[in-house]
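User: My collaborator sent over this chain with a note saying "see what the structure looks like." That's all I know about it. Can you take a look?
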Amino acid sequence: MAACRLCGIGRIRLLFHHPKMQNVSFKLRNVIGIGSTITKLHLRSCHESAWNKHSKVKKVDVDLGERKLEISTGRLARFADGAAIVQLGSTSVMVTAVSKSKPTSSQFMPLVVDYRQKAAAAGRIPTNYLRREMGTTDSEILTSRLIDRSIRPLFPAGYFYDTQILCNLLAVDGVNNPDVLAINGASAALAVSDIPWNGPIGAVRMGLVDGEFVVNPTRKEMTSSLLNLVVASAPHSQVVMMEAAAENVLQQDFCHAIKLGVKHAQQIILAIQQLARELKVTKRTPPKIFAAVLEMVETTRQLASDRIYTVFTDYSHDKISRDEAINKIRLETEEQLKEKYPNAEPYDVIEAFNTVSKEIFRNLVLNEYKRCDGRELTALRDIACEVDIFKPLHGSALFQRGQTQVLCTVTFDSLESSIKTDLITVALNGVKEKNFMLHYEFPPYATNEIGKMGGMNRRELGHGALAEKALKPVIPKDFPFTVRVTSEVLESNGSSSMASVCGGSLALMDAGVPISAPVAGVAVGLVSKANLEKPTEIQDYRLLTDILGIEDYNGDMDFKMAGTNKGITALQADVKIPGLPLKIVMEAIQQATVAKREILTIMHKTIAKPRASRKDNGPAVETVRVPISRRARFVGPGGYNLRRLQAETGVTISQVDEETFSVFAPTPGAMSEAQEFITEVCKDDQEQQLEFGAIYTATITEIRDIGVMVKLYPNMTAVLLHNSQLDHKRIKHPSALGLEVGQQIQVKYFGRDPTDGRMRLSRKVLQSPAVTVVKSLSDKHSISMATGTSHTTDGP
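Assistant: Without extra context I'll predict from the sequence alone. Here is the result:
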């Protein structure tokens, strides 16, 4: 029995369901005859009704400089709670938002953002063996984090409902980068949905090309841009997220770029708000918003506030002892709460203590200007630096800031070891390969925990990418090695990514990398107090320099900035409140700049500039010029000589141009062995005696279908004399001329081919009557062979 595809009613019941058939009597046997007709009528009716109900297609445009951003909704993916398509140029991204109506058991906002680069959108086919999208790339993970950090702060506090944002690339033109479009798409999808969210937000990318700021620069413009700043802004010009890489941009230029980015982002916000108004969006009311029970919070204050205050004002504590003291108070207090409130949910008990603890910690900073380790609000922790930790390494450094300890190492390898970007990323971003990378590792023992080792989580990838952005601008563009910096966090109590920047800079200088300037990084935190009458406004605040882990956890912002004494090379702002006024952002940049210069002064005492030369045990790179006449012998048949050289010495050789080869050796000793090998392979004194246009006696060493292999002297590598150069007659096989292995024939020498370096010989030109001279390498005297005119110059 067939069923309606839209309402699910079966064929027999369909006849009664249809309004025209309700008063019609019929026998069961007639159902089969008229059922199909009525089914078609019913389907068409249901389909038109469904389309009219859901097809509220709306579109708005935003003028961003010379180009237009288009945001639309209502046409695709209508079963999602919210869906939007954002288009710039010919690049289109669809973003969907879905949130469950039942809360989870977690005690945080369970938000998942997935951004995927689709090969079809870029007009490519995946290069893996299945030819389909598999796994996630680093670029996809970093973009997902970018979107997550932009939208997460605007979800209501206590909204613990599974929420998923999916970004689907529909079309990519290779000109406009889709990542910023995906942020705006997520904002629009949430804004037009019924999901509780205090948006919308707008996001733009700012570039600095030829001294001019460019909004959403094209891929070509980004190749010459000194700045790559993505800024996401909430209404009323508040900043919710920033991510930047810069070529040592001055502070005033950086601040101006942020202000311009926020200004243009407001236009996008207004457009999304207009879209939501036209659709008359009504937000759902969640069944439950998780929040601390006021009565239990007040009881917790009476039970534990004095003891918590004592721990936070005891400056003798370090991270471990402070955590242990607070946890002891927590366990005792929670037991007392459970006795007094036996029917309380576990979350309510835990949240009551967390609320009081956080409240005391923040009031100390706001009201008493005290930090739990006794520092001033703008003071740095004690810093210690050391380089050349392990002699066999190409470069190493240990950076200690308070209880955050990072070991950085530098490794050199050949340019062939650079990261080759997959074809899809190349089509989207234009980045083909890179010869500088920084890998960040955060083992569980760094925080006195036990966990799984291996693999790369999103946090580690994000921290490593930020540190890499900070150091990349100071690496020479023409450095002859691939450089890998590894940063292993040995102890962590806040800001390990910025410690990785400092340690990485020290390690690079220890390795002798001629960086343009040392780089340092620092994290600035925020503790703020909201205006009770206007919760989106900040009534009072304190900025904290060089934050601890507990200050990050209890604070409102983690503002990381890195750079040289001159300018800024990287920035990342994670905001935990619905937005920051530009005034606070500018103050944070200034405060971070002062701290950065202080850190650089301390680092300078350990190592002031890069070592003049690399370590003796480090790798070596040399350039070898090989004449075209010797290239075939140098490379060997099928690259045999190069493979043999790599197998015996570990040396790799790559061709730079027609006559130039780059030789990479892992150690100076390997380079010496390679030089001897190359000298021996290229040694060919007898070939230098060959005269262009002269005739020589050649010995056939092999018969092939296409010709014969011949040698002009004993230690020569055999060369091919093609059938076309054996005789004026066209032959299919050398045996037609009666040629045999070991037979000696006369050939004329025409030097080396300028394109591929092959030796050019011809027997054919000697078959015509002419005056010829046979040359012998052992006998310099000429032998007359025929009559006629003088020396022939015919070529093969």
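A starting point for your reply to your collaborator: The chain has 17 helices and 32 strands.
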